[in-house]
Fold these 2 entries.
Entry 1:
Amino acid sequence: MQVDLVCAIHQPNLFPRLSTLAKLLAADVWIVLDDVQFNSRDYQHRARLAAPGQPAPSQWLSLPVYRPRGRNTAINEVVLLEPTKSSRRLTGLLQQHYGRSRFWPEVRAVAYELAKIVGNGGRLAEITEESTRALLQLLNWRGMVIRSSELAVRGERSARLADLALAVGADRYLCGPGGAKYLSTQPFNEYGIEVGYPAPPSRTAWQANRGVSTLHWVAEIGFAELRQGLLGAEQPVGWRSMTATR
């Protein structure tokens, strides 16, 4: 089967992990899942930081938020609190962890640009989506971003994911290792959409430190080497080798 359009669906995360970014890089379309329930225990408002060469995550970088509807608040309804203080904390923690690293200038450029957005306040989803867009852009991704809240889809769980993929005209849906535990492929099969499972980032160090933000690896090796390691020198952005199921 010829595949013309590949999509990935993922909630907006603050400076996402490498495995998340690799999945998005492999897609032509990222559907930002912004209208599901906010989970304070996930990566939707926070990122794990670890100093270069450190074997394990050491500290959370978290943005304080307000949920206007309590536990039922959707991600795109969550509001950032203390924007000025949050902006200073973001740049301060990133400099504390990565300020002495070889590629700190590359991290700093991303950090300070997002800090300006954080300082203006507003919706959390827009801020975290922008943090991911910035990383994708610097890795030369040329795909399209669409928010699930902009699509007229009302299904639940796997059926909703299949409906979202269908809504953007996808031939293949990329499922990460976390979602693979719960995904039912039946609704995708009914639409003739393949389900692909992208290979995780291959380097041993990357696999051993899966919880840290991609910024950790930018600080260690820079965007150029990171791009080559994820995609290969000649491999086009928007596609990776994967296994598929029907």
Note: Confidence is low (pLDDT under 50) at residues 233-246.
Entry 2:
Amino acid sequence: MQPDECVSERAETTCESLIKAKPGTNIVASETLLRLPLCKLASIAQGEAKVELMTALGYKNDDSLSTCFMVKDSINEMTISDLTHTNRIFVNYIKEIDPNFIINSTENFGIKVDKVGFNYPKAAVSYINNLIGTTTLRRITDVVDDSDINKETEMIIVTAAHFKGTWEFPFDFRLTKLRDFHPTEGKIIRIPMMTKTDMFRYIENKDCQAVSIRFGSSRASFTIILPNSPQQLPALLDNIYNQKAYVYSLVTRMRNQPLKVTFPRFKVKSFIDLTESVKKLGLNTIFNTTSSGLEGILRNSNKSIALNKIKQKLFVQIDEVGVARFIHFENMGPPQVQESYFENSPQFTADRPFYFDISLDFDNARYEMFTGVYYGPEETTTANEIQIKASK
């Protein structure tokens, strides 16, 4: 988002609490996927719940809620190749649910609302997990467990996504080599790292280097912010999370220049219960079982319904090509020698833990689809892992 909007601060605070809870652990979260169901709730919320939701989302009135969904079409375009996702609100299967809350949710809000019989908890868990697994082509499974649902459950939010980015201009598999990576001070492991020399958007300062690379999907890009040393990562993360315009400022000041970029091929998976994180941001009323301010979901406003749980499960994968594996490098001869124009290009080598995001970029706003920190592979990579066949 634009740097002066409250939602940026909310996203950063959420990610900060998650990252600080498990330092040194790979993590990815999606502020954008979470905000869509919250916008849906804000559209019907009343009283203190409305105030809390609108404040957290960064909006002053209902008219401004429409901007909450401007990313929906871009997200849909990403689903053509790179993104498999589902974004759902599950409400208890009771006759009091107003059908107006369910209809047009996908068209207007980019989410789906489903009625589930929470009176049968084990069956509800099985139904939700099967539905999420089916809609994500089994790439995301087992999002909820038996402890998430009981007979008192009234509503839960589930977001799940698998992203495998397809570059606008792919990397060459043949240039991927085992290189040194420093996950912590004094420790070195060898992992597959991709390399490409080209024109990239880039910036550096006394704290970090940052590069942004375009995906093939409209408006989507991948940004790495690399501390100047492994020891500087905590300070860099503090800058990112304490200065809500830090990343936005870096990206808007980037300039195109010749650059040799090298960074790991990686996967990051996260399974996050966002319930407590959201409460810490001031969203408490919607969880109040006696007066949630969400009575607009029901036909009879004299009754109450509250949100009980928010779960998110994500899988982000970055490699040389992405989903569109149609390039046959073996028919192209050896890798081309870089032209003299690139001979003295500066280097960006992500050989230590870094912050990353995958964003949707508009003229006056930047939506962070995924944000995370990569500390290195969870298991030591072997040389066999880079025996790549381009025909895959």
Note: The chain has ten helices and 14 strands.
